[in-house]
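User: Hi! I'm working on a homework problem where we have to compare a predicted structure to a textbook description. Could you give me the structure for the chain below?
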Amino acid sequence: MSEAMTTRVWDEYKAGLEYQRSMGFSADFPAFEKFKEGEQWPAATKRTQNLPRPVFNVVEMLIRNKRSAIVNQPIAIQYSPAEYSADEQTAALAAEGAKDMTDYARQLWERCDQEELNSELLDDAATLGTGILHYYFDTSVTGGTEHPYVGEIRGETIDPLNIFFGNPQCRDVQRQPYIIISQRLDAEDVKEAARAEGIKEDQLKLIAGDDRHENEGYSAARKELTNRKKVTVLTKYYRVNGAVVFDRCTEHVEIIKGRSLTPEGSTHVIKRYPIAVMNWRTRKKCIFGIGECQTLIPAQKAINFLKAMELLSAQQTAWPKIIAKQGALNQPITNEPGEILTDHYGNGIGITYLNPPAMSSGASALAQSIFDLMRTVSGVNEVASGEPLGSNISASAIIALQSQAIKPIEEIQSHFWRTIKQVGAIWEDMIKAYYTTERNVTVTDASDDTDPMDNTRAFTGAAYAGIEFNLKIDVGASSQYSEALTMSILESYLDRGFINQFEHLDLIADNVFPQKERLKKKWSDRDAQKEQLMQEIMAELQGQGMMPPDGTVPTDGGTMPEGVTRAGGVGGIELPPIPKAPTV
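Assistant: Happy to help. Predicted structure tokens:
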């Protein structure tokens, strides 16, 4: 097969690469990533090799703080019936399906490590402007004892430079005519997969390792192992009669053509692309967004340069250049303290320092001013970054400050929540199509003292194939209710008597006081010892005829034997000696 005989998907891939180059993404995205990682200076030249190169990574700090503020709120996917039928059986099935889907989504959230995926998604979105999630059904996952199953939904993040949209001017991912994902995979593994698909040997020879990693934008992606050759593999999603199908190919070989994403025999047809896209900030007429780095890099360069000039000034002041007139210096100069130099110049001074000009204090003030402006423009102040506010600030003031601090990221939070809503719709589509056998689903919000078996039930996603569900994102407590604020409120409630010490300890988060269970056990043991001591004293008093037969303690209106205090004093107070009976 000649070089010109490339696959159609490969031609579309090349068009996507050209679009990314024309938009500047191929050069900008790697530069953004380098700056975030701390590679903020160009390579040294002969003229700049002695220039200090400090890095004060403000870009990474601002991105990290914003990302943390967004993921600080716990979220969950919640399903509900799209409509309520008059038929009781249908209505009951819809309600049961919504509960099963919601509970399984919580379980799947943990099993596919969605928290880690969210962190990677937000990191890409904040740095590059666009974060992308891709979901697939992984048949290598097995499990279940009572209800064995094969396969489960898994997810991954896709770098924006490795995805190509058929209509990049449309921000709605579900309206794309096609979506192509590129990967660099081991050539031998790809060849074996193609052989399993029935590809002939003459075509298998065309699947060989290549050096097309130049299309990879990042320097780390371009450095591949020399003993393992890789090949670029393309996966293309598109629709045929509304159903999602996919192709898989290399440059010259079509491995899979028009295979339905819906498994054979399923009653539910997958119609959604298994891809969710998040924009940090939207870009006009483009599916790729705008990140933090794009506007922060010039200011970051200015701060680094000003600090470098300060260091260079200090370096030249502490170790200035030496001026030696011809014939004045006949010995090498070392760094030895107190070294004596002989000036052989006849008339005047032949050896002297070149006094550098003093560094203006305005440079340091300018760097601080630029840093403060970067924080202001980015919306990351001291409260948002977690810096101490002082010990005399009230809980209500902390709430007000932290509530105001998250205002600049509320729009970005809404972008993230909409992306998770896309994820929930993808999960619904895949669960209805792939989950054709029973598997266990466990209720995650059950109380700790409940038997897990009582909270586990069988679940078959395909049973709800004909039922439509509404989807919403349940957002948990806001980040303004931090551990410090919670402790402040609990201390106030304890001081006012609204709660006792046991309730106070129960309400403290485990990560704030990890040893609280040990303390509760000590308290419990101490109370048990007090109770046992009281019972022993009462038994002794009753045996000597000084207590009622039923062992009760007289009330304030009753009488106690002379010299005996109330039994209530046992709790930590020593009783006086028991008096002897009077003699007649």
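For your comparison, note the following. Residues 499-570 form one domain. The radius of gyration is 36 Å. Good luck with the assignment!
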